[in-house]
Amino acid sequence: MDTRAFLAKVLPSSGHYIIVTGKAGGKPTKTITHDTIEALATAAAKADAQDREVWYARASFRSDKPPAQDADGHVPKTPRYTKNALLIRAQGLDIDVGPGKPYKDRTLALQALGFVLKQLNLTRPMIVASGRGLHAYWCFDADVPAEDGYVVSHALSDGLRAHGFLHDHGATSNIVGLLRPVGTHWRKETPAVAVALLSDAPPISFASFQNKLTAFIQAAPVRTEDDEFSTGPRTFAPSSALRIVEQCRALAAIVEAQGAVDEPLWRCMLGLVKHTEEGPAQAHLWSQGDPRYSVADTDEKLANWATGPATCVAIARAGGDCTNCPHTVSSPIHLGYAEVEPSVPTPDVPPTPLVPVTSAPQKNLDAPLFQFMPKGYRWNGTELQHSSRDDQGVWHWRRVSDRWWYPYARVREEAGTSSLRVCARGADKTWREFVLQTELLADERNLLKLLAGHEIVAGKGEGPRMREYVKDVMQQIEFAGQESRTINAFGWNDDGFVLGDTLITGQRTNPVILGASIPDAMRHGFRTRGTAEEWSALIDKIYNRPGAEAYQFAILSAFGAPLVQLAAADLWHGIPIALTGESGLGKTTTCLAACSIYGPPGDFLVSAHDMGSTVNALIQRVAIMKNLPLILDELHDMKSAELPMLLYALSNGVPKNALKADRTFRDQGTFWNTMTFVTSNVNIMSLLGQNARSKAEATQVRVFEIPLPKNYTHIFGDINTKELIEIELLQNQYGAVGQKFLQAVVSKRNAISAAINKLRVRYMPNDSEMTRERFYYDALTTALVAGKVAQSLGFINFDLKAIETWAIEHIQDLREHRRNTLSSIDDQLSTILAALTDRVVRTKHFPRGRLRPGSIEHVDTRGIRHPIARMAEMDRVLVITLPGLRELCREFTIDVRGLTDRLEREGTLKSASWLGVDETHGKIFPFRGTDLPNAGVQTRCLVIDLDVLEGAVRETNNVVQLTRAQ
């Protein structure tokens, strides 16, 4: 690998780049900036050819010139300073090797590195021989913002130090630090030694690298308020001035002189000791031997030292004795940290070297990082052991188990009890997880029975050790203050957003424990594949074209799913987006493409056909997603009676109320605020229109249907959509965009919430129709705000104004379509009236009250078959038996309840009391007062006012035909 190829791999793709050169064997002196990696590599090769030392800065920078003065009043001499950093592409690690260095040769250094990588569960890095020492690089598959790199660089260094790995903390944690590029030479000795690649490694996901360091990111000190990447005032790990003075010659000289040194050097001592455990009191003690000493002056100097601990560079510049210092630290403050006690006592005979947790995937799951190994325990590669002394005081290792297993999390369950999540490696070397209820610690027999069920079998005398091991680990977790609670749904949770088994916050990601209600296939998170840039490029190529606004709206709706809750509206909980039409229009694939924002598309797809009639199962799946989108595919296979119930629940944010046996309402327990997707080969508006009008009107406005016309895919004529969507996108690009999008949404949630509510005001209903359609306009508002956020992050390039115009026009189309489907009830009524022509008998009157003698009417039944209705022409009423009406409705597949509801709502029905008969039991004699054989038969009937009926269906001539005299 030459210099150019190396720099192209470790440097980001944009920004200004820096190399620094110096005399052979000397320090960096000359800074050179370039706008391209190729020009940077050429300059590095030229300087190396002139026998100069060459270093490069591993970040790119916003500006290629230093400011006249930065916000702190400092004047950087070069553009290579943290606040100017733009991007990084790799995380570097500097390891010192050689006489007087932490590792005497490369073999020992690489062995120690291999050990700590397993402890941290990190992948193998690229290794470079940097002269005598070593550099290691984790190269990322995408550029990383400098602020994220800053956090992770410090976390990596802290993690390495926590496990005893010796390295240059300053070079590792400094994103603008200098390292030597491959292809140049280390010239501190003669002959010069080439900087060369020892072993390469493929790029990795920054998110996965970051997740492995979560524990150290959480524990990291917060940075200074003035730092661009800051979250608050800075704190430091405890460091002792007394330990520092034992190792730092410069500080020892100041102490020996009792503070009688030049004032700049004395001030550096104050700035260092101020940040130690002993603090200002020790600074006064070491200063009071100087004749110039005064309490007030020293207090003033201490108060005015507003930055971090004095650095080695500052001390050397002030005249400190830093020549040939054996330490490789950026500040003497690092020399005062307490040494970490070994996790196990040292036996008289050194035991087999420890073997840390190894990453053995099962279902793409790595073993969780074991952070809580109690003192006195170890895994030696074949056994889990505990150390104890015999009667002579000699240390011995005793076996706890022949399997490697450990509790890694303490969980507070919903019921209030505690449990431990345990990870165990089976005989096949794969990792498995199980739950251990802490109540079992009171019963060794049942504890061992549970462990044996997971192939952890206690040998003779090992049962008590296993129990003590669990108690000791649990105590370690408790001391660390690490208690989790189970999460039973994805989405918004406290101050973050749960995606899979990860809680995304504005600054970092944290692991969470998922409850038992989460499906097994989704328990280990929504994986990622590809990059955000590649996903965005494919979405742009496929969907960013005129005429594709319907598909674009679906994609924006998926971005909008997590934003629904931010509206904080009582009546807005999301709405199903229904893509309907014949097969081959890309309905399901578009929904999958939209959901690929957050993870593998298949994780977001549920077939209504596969779920059968279990609407509750579909609703439960939506509740688990909570604030993430879900695709309900093939909804046309659902039972027609259950469709309105499902759509109503999806837009209402809660399941339908249900009663318990004692007639009290059952606790619903779940809720959601999200956008769902529905696909169907049948027009849903039309399906709903076949129900009772009142139900149809209420449900039709709770689904945003997008009927796709035939041959709609002609707009994609210039590309192979099947290959681009199904192979390149759905199989190879998913999840990366969602993590970045959610991180931005969490960080800016207050501003996003304000933007949603501001836009909602624009679409406030100003008439009854808009009031009915409020869900449509809320869907549009959510999609547009989500689109603006996604656009600002570079994920989409859609014309949002064109999408808004399309959506408003589409809402008007839906209104018209809704009216058309609802008017079909008029058609149904006309059908029933036409069918009554040969089933109705006609009389002049309908007798009201007591029958008078001789008032029996003769009925002409010619052409009449089995009469089910009676028309009283002079009284203008039509009496139809309910059994007869149900018979006709069954014949013509008409909803009898919907029909009767419509007639009653429009005032078409008369009360039976109008007839002057007793309707206490709801039955009348429909043919009373006629000479028909069934005149004495009593049944339930509808009494219809013909004048009102004629007005209700005046667009047809069925009433005229029905009332025409024979």
Widest sheet: strand ordering: 4-5-7-6-11
Name the structural class: alpha+beta
Question: What is the gyration radius calculated from CA atoms?
Answer: 39 Å
CATH architecture field of the largest domain? 3-Layer(aba) Sandwich
- The amount of beta strand, in percent, is 15-25%
How many structural domains?
Answer: 5
User: Low-confidence parts lasting 5 or more residues at pLDDT below 50?
Assistant: 221-235, 339-366, 658-668
Any idea what the shape is? elongated
> Per CATH, what is the topology of the largest domain?
Rossmann fold
Keywords:
966 residues, alpha+beta, Alpha-Beta Plaits, 5-stranded antiparallel β-sheet, 5-stranded mixed β-sheet, elongated
SSE order and pairing:
Blueprint (H helix, E strand, L loop, with lengths): L2 H8 L6 E6 L7 E5 L2 H13 L3 E5 L1 E3 L23 E11 L10 H15 L5 E4 L4 E12 H17 L6 H5 L4 E2 L5 E2 L6 E2 L1 E4 L6 H7 L1 H6 L21 H7 L1 H8 L6 H11 L6 H8 L7 H10 L7 H6 L59 E3 L4 E6 L5 E7 L3 E8 L5 E8 L5 E7 L6 H10 L9 H17 L4 E4 L3 E3 L2 E4 L2 E3 L4 E3 L1 E2 L17 H12 L5 H12 L15 E5 L6 H9 L9 E3 L7 H11 L5 E3 L9 H10 L23 E5 L3 H6 L3 H8 L3 E4 L13 H9 L6 H12 L1 H14 L5 H5 L1 H19 L7 H23 L1 H12 L4 E4 L25 E4 L4 E5 H10 L4 H10 L3 E2 L30 E5 H7 L5 H6 L3
Helix pairs in contact: 1-2, 8-9, 10-11, 11-12, 14-15, 16-23, 17-18, 17-27, 17-28, 19-20, 20-22, 25-27, 27-28
